[in-house]
Specification:
Layout lengths: L3 H34 L7 E4 L11 H7 L5 E4 L2 E4 L2 E2 L5 E4 L5 E5 L6 E4 L2 E6 L2 E4 L8 E4 L3 E6 L2 E3 L6 E4 L3 E6 L2 E3 L6 E3 L5 E4 L2 E3 L6 E4 L5 E3 L2 E3 L4 E6 L5 E3 L2 E3 L3 E4 L11 E3 L2 E3 L4 E4 L14 E3 L4 E4 L24
Length: about 325
């Protein structure tokens, strides 16, 4: 049956399909392909070199100022005399603590992380060598998601690492924090941090000092030869303190204060031994703690690796080793 009206309707229908549905199909397929092959933009790497001037910058602060969120500022070997004010989203990476050194002697910190988030600092020796009452590395004013890793932090008139004023999600790990005139690490002002795997020694006051309420965790650190307390939680501080070695300080763990606002840490699986005045002040030794010579390779030479006969091997929670340096068999 040949009906002109029906033929016109069919012709209009197929024209509509060709002009609308088929292009929509191809557009949909194209969008799907783009989604499957999409790779998010990666941050750039800005290189700093003050030795051979082979990088993008010769001052670290210039590179930081020009970096964007997600960028890495890589600092080649050398000594850089400047103070660094970091900003959010930046990774500051050195060539290793023995290779890349940042020093400063003026009225400021070596590294300042102030109201910043998503920041990493690794691979440096950071040394304050001035006379002002400054910390070497400050994290303050609601800073969050900050990682301080694989550095040597030294020389401050106050604390080596200072975390305060509502800062959170801070990780301080695998650093050597030594020879600061006050505390190695000081946490205060409703702030919290995970402090793990650090050697904290030869500081002029406390190894780790925590003031006020906090959810900090101090795990697997070696805290030695500090002039006052190895660990000093006070003013109702309730941090977790576990798997640490605390030896040869003036006091081991002291929770007492003159006004009676003592700390109340959650202790377990530590080795607290050989501290000058007492191992525990204001609390009893927990049943899971030990008090034995840790048998370092060379205590006086500051080699805090464990001898094969060390009682710290396997004495931690779930059979882990105590301290910052798990035993490695030859």
């Amino acid at each position: 049956m040949n009906c002109p009206a029906i033929n016109r309707s069919l012709s209009f229908f197929w024209k509509t399909v060709r002009e609308n549905i088929i292009p929509v199909f191809f557009i949909t397929a194209l969008l799907l392909l783009l989604l499957l092959t999409y790779q998010p933009a990666r941050g750039e790497k800005l290189v700093v070199d003050n030795q051979n001037y082979s990088g993008d910058y010769w001052r670290i602060q210039d590179a930081v100022d020009n970096a964007k969120y997600g960028d890495t500022v890589y600092v080649k070997p050398g000594t850089y005399n400047e103070t660094i004010n970091l900003k959010s989203g930046i990774t500051l990476e050195g060539a290793g603590a023995e290779e890349t050194k940042i020093t400063y002697s003026g009225d400021d910190r070596v590294i300042d992380i102030y109201e910043d988030s998503d920041v990493t600092v690794s691979g440096f020796t950071l040394e304050y060598n001035g006379s002002e009452n400054r910390v070497t590395l400050r994290i303050k004013n609601s800073s969050t998601n900050v990682v301080i890793r694989n550095n040597v932090i030294t020389g401050s008139i106050y604390s080596g690492v200072n975390v305060g004023k509502n800062s959170s999600k801070i990780i301080i790990e695998n650093n050597v924090i030594r020879n600061n005139k006050h505390s190695g690490v000081y946490i205060f002002g409703n702030s919290s941090a995970v402090i793990r795997g650090n050697e904290i020694y030869d500081n002029g006051y406390h190894g780790v000092s925590i003031k006020g309420e906090t959810s900090s965790q101090i795990i697997n650190n070696t805290i030695v030869f500090n002039a006052s307390n190895g660990f000093y939680p006070r003013l109702d501080a309730k941090p977790v303190f576990q798997n640490n070695i605390v030896v040869k300080n003036k006091d081991g763990i002291d929770v007492t204060t003159k006004n009676g606002s003592d700390g109340n840490p959650i202790l377990g699986y530590n080795n607290v031994w050989g501290n000058e005045k007492r191992n525990y002040e204001g609390l009893d030794q927990p049943p899971t703690d030990i008090s034995l010579d840790p048998e370092f390779v060379d205590l006086e030479g500051r080699d805090f690796n464990l001898k094969p006969t060390s009682p710290c091997i396997g004495a931690g929670k779930e059979g882990s080793d105590l301290g910052a340096n798990p035993y490695k068999s030859p």
